[in-house]
Amino acid sequence: MKGHEAKMPRMEDILSLPVQDPPCAEFSAAQMKWVKVEGGRQGGDDIALIPFARVDDFVKGESSNAECPASFRIESRRKRPEGSISKPRVDGYLEYTLYWCSYGPEDYRDSESGMGDGSNIKPASGKGSRPGRRHMMRGCLCHFTVKRLYTRPLLALIIYNQRKHVDKTGAPCHGILDQDAVGTRAMYAPRISEELRQKVMSMLYVGISLDTVIQHHMEVVQGHGGPHNRDDFLTRNDVRNMERLIRNSSHELHASDECSVRVWVQRHQKHVFYFQENSGSEPFILGIQTEWQLQQMLLYGHNGSIASHSTFGLKKLKYPLCTLLVFDSTHNAIPVAWVITSSFVGQDVHKWIGLLAERVHTKDPRWRLNAFLVDDPSFEVSMIREVFQCRVLLCVWHIRRAWMRSILKKCCNFDVQREMFKHLGWILYCTRNGPNAMDAIEEFMQVFVDQCAFMNYFKIRWLPTIELWVNGVRSLAVASPEPHAAIESYHLRLKSKLYNEQHANSWARVDWLIHFLTTEFHSSFWLDQYSVETGYFENLRDKSFITNAWFHAVHIADVDVILDEQNLELAKVISQTDRSLAYTVWNPGSEFSLCDCHWSRVGNLCKHVIKVAVLCKNRQVARPLLAAQVYRQTLVSLLQNPPDDPLVLEHAILHATRLQQDIKGLEDLSNNGLLQPLPPEINSQLADNVLLFPRLH
After folding, report:
1. Nearest partner of 92 among 42, 149, 161, judged by Cα
2. Which of 78, 228, 514, 655 is the most buried (most CB within 10 A)?
3. Whether the Cβ atoms of residue 561 and residue 615 lie closer than 8 Å to each other
4. Distance between CA atoms of 605 and 599, rounded to whole angstroms?
5. Is the pLDDT confidence value at 378 over 90?
6. Which helix (H) or strand (E) holds 322?
7. CA 416, CA 448: separation in Å to the nearest integer?
8. Do 102 and 72 form a contact (C-beta atoms < 8 A)?
9. Which whole-number Å values give the CA distances from 12 to 4, 8, 45, 76, 92, in the listed order?
10. Which is nearest to 613 in space by CA: 601, 623, 628?
11. Phi first, then psi: what are they for 325, rounded to 5°?
């Protein structure tokens, strides 16, 4: 048998075996080195050690055997709690799982009635015959055991009892090596793959009819030249069964919300990367990531960015929702993980962020993140930086949107609106009156003392946390406005779907939120990506969220932006639909720009603001982003006050040259995720807030 380079004398020596972790998404026995055990209960069997987190990858790889496509089912499973054994054996287990090829062990090939020679053969688990599966039973003896080791819980011992897909006579019993199976479904895997099941379920969740699903599948099969595997034989009955499953499913798995969530977690352990129940001292935390979301994180997060969309649903949901987003090739945000918690998500990030990163690196050890965007300065930034080894940027989309919408709602004068918005930006960056944020706030309140409605809102909602935000801006690099639009578009989409009044009675239940996210909402993003990749079902996508302001801004020509260098208070952007119309962007280039287009006037970030900001940054004209203004003010003050003493000036030139080299070194450190933030007490005029948002896909 291939791979038997060494022989182990006893099972007691298994911990000396190397832990094998092939650098691919899925792997099979053929890609591993096996050792034959001598003696003991497993005498003569092949064994190998792999990370326990990769057991599913091994099972999938084994199911993709070219000669004998299969589907391994769990024949039996046992678990025992930690601490239950005082002196565990070296191969003692926390979890024991027996996987058996679905073409066995029973054999019904000789008798359709099931009363022939094979009818008396019972499976190893003693469960008796399996109604509805008899037609696929061909006596296959291929099976293996997986033990999660008691003394090494992160490792799995694979014991391959029978590697070959053969019956009791030793002859091939399915696949292309079985002559009797040629031309029948026994040539292929007995069931459709999990990927096709996810695809069909997603299509049904978004409202695609059974007939359309079947028609589309037939077109795809014909497109690649006819049937090649079990998936290509998808039947109406397969789809009808999944349709029935969706129709009969319910979010309420128990009358108690807490018990219902617990049941869901037990049934969907593959989708849960962290779970902590609510107790007197510990908050409720549930981290969810489906296999499809993990794939998107691997694809778009590598050398890209992840952004947090936190504290959604504080007023209406039982517990707020935090979403982690990546940005695809069309600048749309895709949710790659959800965290539901009863506490502030940023304070408990240390509990789950490492486990999430481990899931990604288990799939691809070479995966690397460029930047992590936090929309709340209370996040444990040091933990994120340590786990992902990347830059952490502060994204001000949330506070910008909240301030803008409140101003538009509580103040009627447009000139006052834009001045208030600009002043709020200066408060956040604290550049008007030095490092003391409270002085800047006091001046703001005096200037706009007549705006009572907004001032009351500001004092109650933002005054208690404004110092936290100011310190965040001082100590972290600030993301540019482009990703704001993608995050905002996701926010609007989540809000429109989740806050549908027909769901109002369910908002107070966490199990409903979980069910909604992992079914209907998840499927809508799957459809978006599938449509982009294949061109199918473009007409079924939600037109409101196909593109966002970031995507549209990229398609505005530079010549359509008019910047008056004599008046840098505003810029003009020619309409892309009506060339006789031009929109005005005040305070151009700033995160706190304001446009007079309809989309901006209802509190959203528009394409005109983004286009102007990008152009200002590229041309280095008009107003730079506020974060860069802090840096430029320091340089300008130095230029305006050169030393008179020639000797001092000579030393100043030397220091300036060294400073330029030091800044380049800081950029290199930041690019490698090694640059630590400045302490919050450092003067804001000395803070390193140069914008360093990475180029996205």
Report:
1. 149
2. 514
3. yes
4. 7
5. no
6. strand 321-327
7. 9
8. yes
9. 18, 9, 14, 24, 11
10. 623
11. -120, 145
**Are 633 and 435 in contact, with CB atoms under 8 Å apart?**
no
Structural tokens at position 228: 């090649």
- In this structure, are residues 93 and 150 in contact, taking their beta carbons and an 8 Å threshold? yes
| H/E stretch holding 326 | strand 321-327
Is residue 394 within 8 A of residue 478, CB to CB? The reply is yes
| Total Cβ atoms within 10 A of residue 15 | 14
Of 450, 482, 49, 74, the residue nearest 270 (C-alpha): 74
Q: Which amino acid is it at 5? A: E
Report the distance separating Cα 228 and Cα 210, nearest Å: 22
**Quick one: tokens of 575?**
């309409």
**Which run of H or E residues covers position 245?**
helix 236-248
| Residue reference for tokens 């091939």 | 172
How confident is residue 142, by pLDDT bands cut at 50, 70 and 90?
very high
Please tell me what DSSP assigns to residue 517. Answer: I
What's the whole-model pTM score? 0.76
Q: How open is the CA angle 82-88-93, to the nearest 5 degrees?
A: 60
- Contact at 8 Å (CB) between 130 and 119? no
Task: Categorize the per-residue pLDDT at 475 as very low, low, confident or very high, splitting at 50, 70 and 90.
Answer: confident
Q: How do 143-149 and 305-312 pair as beta strands?
A: unpaired
Task: Write the secondary structure of 119-157 as one string of H (helix), E (strand) and C (coil).
Answer: HHCCCCCCCCCCCCCHHHCECCCCEEEEEEECCCCCEEE
β-bridge pairing 477-478 and 391-394: parallel
CA 572, CA 581: separation in Å to the nearest integer?
A: 10
Q: How far is 117 from 110, CA to CA, in rounded Å?
A: 7
For helices 210-223 and 194-205, the axis angle rounded to 10 degrees is 140
Range in 145-154, 174-183, 247-256 the model is least confident about: 174-183
Q: Scanning the structure block, which residue is given the tokens 């990367």?
A: 273
What is the spatial distance between Cα 154 and Cα 49, in angstroms, rounded to a whole number? 10
Q: How far is CA 53 from CA 47, 141, 146, in A?
A: 17, 26, 12
